[in-house]
Structure formats: C-alpha cells, structure tokens
Amino acid sequence: MKVLTVLGARPQFIKAAPVSNALREAGHTEYLVHTGQHYDFSMSQVFFDEMNIPAPDINLEIGSGTHGEQTGKMLASIEAQIVNEQPDCVLVYGDTNSTLAGALAACKLCVPLAHVEAGLRSFNRSMPEEHNRVLTDHCSDLLFCPTQTAVGHLEREGISRGVHLVGDTMYDAVLQFGISADQKSTILQKLGLSSKEYLLATIHRPYNVDDPIALRNILSAFAAIEELVVFPVHPRTRKRMVETIRDDVNSLPNNVTMIEPVGYLDMLMLEQNSRLILTDSGGVQKEAFFFGVPCITLRPETEWVETINAGWNRLVAPNSSSIIGAIGAHNWPQSKPAKLFGDGKASQKIVEIIEKYALI
After folding, report:
1. Residue 58 in contact with residue 82, Cβ under 8 Å?
2. pLDDT at residue 104, rounded to an integer
3. Which residue stretches of the chain have pLDDT < 50?
4. Where are the domains of the chain?
5. For 97-118, b where at least 16 C-beta lie within 10 A, e where not — what string?
6. Is 124 exposed, middle or buried (CB count within 10 Å of its CB: 0-12, 13-18, 19+)?
7. Cβ-contact 302, 107 below 8 angstroms
8. Residue 24 neighbours by CB distance under 10 Å
9. What is the pLDDT of residue 41?
10. Half-sphere exposure of 104 (CA within 13 A, CB side)
C-alpha cells in the first residue's frame, strides 16, 4: 500500500510522526510531501530530526503568502504529486492551509482521502482553521476522530460514514518521545530553570498578535506576573512585536525570558516542568493536559473542550487584568487527568483502518 502524506506545519509533524512510524513498521510505502508552509529550521527541520521522520520526498517550498495565494499554490503542486505517484490514499492532518490543499487535490482526483484529527470545531468562523477543518471533513472518505466529542460534531453535520474514533496521535507522540525528551533535552539546565518554578507562554494566532491592543495587553500581563515567564517567541509574534507595537523583543522586564522557538523534545521538557502554561495553541493545550499542567488559553473558545470540562484548562480574554486574575486562581484539579484522548495506540489503529479500506 502506498500512502501520500501532506505536511506543512509544526503541529502536523508531531501528529504525523507516530503514524509514519506505524506505516513503515507495517511494511507500507509513504511518500512525504512537505508544502513548506513552515520553512525555517526551528519550525520545521528540527522536528524531522528529533522525531525520526524520514526526510520529505519533496519539499514544495511554498512559503508564506495570503491564504488564497498559499492554498492555491499548494493545491496545484500537490495535485501534480498525486498524479505522478498514484497513491492508494492521501493522508492529511489537522486544519492548516496545507490540510485543505491536500484534501481538495485528492478529492478532485477521486483518490481516497483520510483526515487525522477530524471532527474538531471551535464554532468560530473567523478562524481560517475552522473553514479548513469543515471543508476537509466533508471531502474525506476516512475521518479519524481523537474524541467522542469530535464524532458528535460530525454526526450533527450529517457525516457518519467512514468515521472512526481512534484517539489522538499527539498523545501517542508524547508517550513515544517523552522518554527521549528526559534523556536528551538540556533546555532546563541551559536556561537555569527548576521544575515547577516558572510559567511557560506561547502566542501566535492572528487575533492575538495582529491586534496591537491584544498583543500589548498580553505582554503587559506577562511583565506584571510575579513569577518567571519563559516565552519562546514564534516568528510571527516576533515580527508583530517589532512592526505593530514597535516593542523590541528584549524590552520586557527580567521576569520574562524570551527565547527562540524550540524543538519538540525541548518543548516537552518545558511543558511538563512548568507550573502553569499560557497559550493560544491547540496542541500546547492538549500537551499541558497530558502532563497534568494547568493551562490558561488566551482565546474566546477552544476546539479542545474536553480539557475545559475536566478543569485543567481555562479560557481567558486577552486583557491584562483577566490574565493576571486567572493565574492567581488556585482551584486546579489535584488528581491526574483522565485518559480522554485514547490509549496511545491511535497510530496503529489508523494504519489498520487504511489497510482495510485500501483492500476493498
């Protein structure tokens, strides 16, 4: 069986790593197409190196651009790859422009399409990711859902055929690579950090970093926190800090330690050893939950409602007083999080289902 996998952004590399390993262990051929949506080393190549993902068979080098320009270029290039490679299935992940382009190319060419992380909904149509999720799900032949909530969303949209509740491949990745992080990462020593004596912060979404008021409020909250805040600065955020609010990235007080984006193993170490995480990233919300670390999500909604319902995650508006107030709350759960995202074997289940579908 030959599977053509489309990847383009950091979260997809993480989701794909355990599936890629499972495909190869089962003796199948995987043709990896990297769209180049994330193209610098810190957001792309380091993840292939650390997670033992084979080098992409082709990097389309699309780069940045408007949503329409980026998606259109990807669509044309992925279509050509599908025509050349004649795969039995096209596999896409998550909700990026790379996801949608891969889905449309497969759908138009009548090649079976499988979507990992199907059924997620934030119900915020101002998010480009929400459009990508919905359209990809409605194009897909196989829909691999991480939670029962995701299955329910699809049912309400009239999608039941090809839907499979398999669990979350990011949980698979944490289980597979957590030990490697403990053994190989030196980020805590490098930054002089002690476990549970710092907060970890990440922000990158447009409604936080493209809005000068929201961005300044978030940074002001970080500066006012009476604890050490470790802040890996996403390239998009760094650019907006300089261009939009004209703040130098090194101008925040000493309690905020700004660092370059880190690789997957270093990020796992920073997450599991932090006292609390502040983020607008969907993936980081889940990883915080997996590690039992309280999380404050700087968004009006989340597609990962399970983390909210379990008490490990809180939605907070991007203003200083709300953020500082949420950090001061102390009624976080005391017991370990329940296993709401599968048994760590989602990747093997996905490969087995694709195998059966390909043989029909």
Report:
1. no
2. 98
3. 41-43
4. 2-168+342-359, 180-327
5. bbbbbbbbbbbeeebbbbbbbb
6. middle
7. no
8. 14
9. 43
10. 20
In DSSP terms, 276 is beta-bridged to 199
Cβ atoms of residues 91 and 28 within 8 Å: no
Nearest to 156 by CA among 134, 141, 139: 134
pLDDT of residue 250: 58
Q: List Cβ neighbours of 253 (8 Å cut-off, separation of 6 or more).
A: 223
Pick the CATH number of 180-327 from 3.40.1580.10, 3.40.50.2000, 3.20.20.140, 3.20.20.70: 3.40.50.2000
DSSP 329: -
For 70-95, what is each residue's pLDDT tens digit?
899 999 999 999 999 999 999 999 99
What pTM does this model have? 0.92
> What phi-psi label fits residue 133: left (phi over 0), alpha (psi between -120 and 50 degrees) or beta?
alpha
Q: Which helix (H) or strand (E) holds 3?
A: strand 2-7
The amino acid present at 86, given as its one-letter code, is: Q
Which residues are marked as active site?
204
Rg of the Cα atoms in the chain: 20
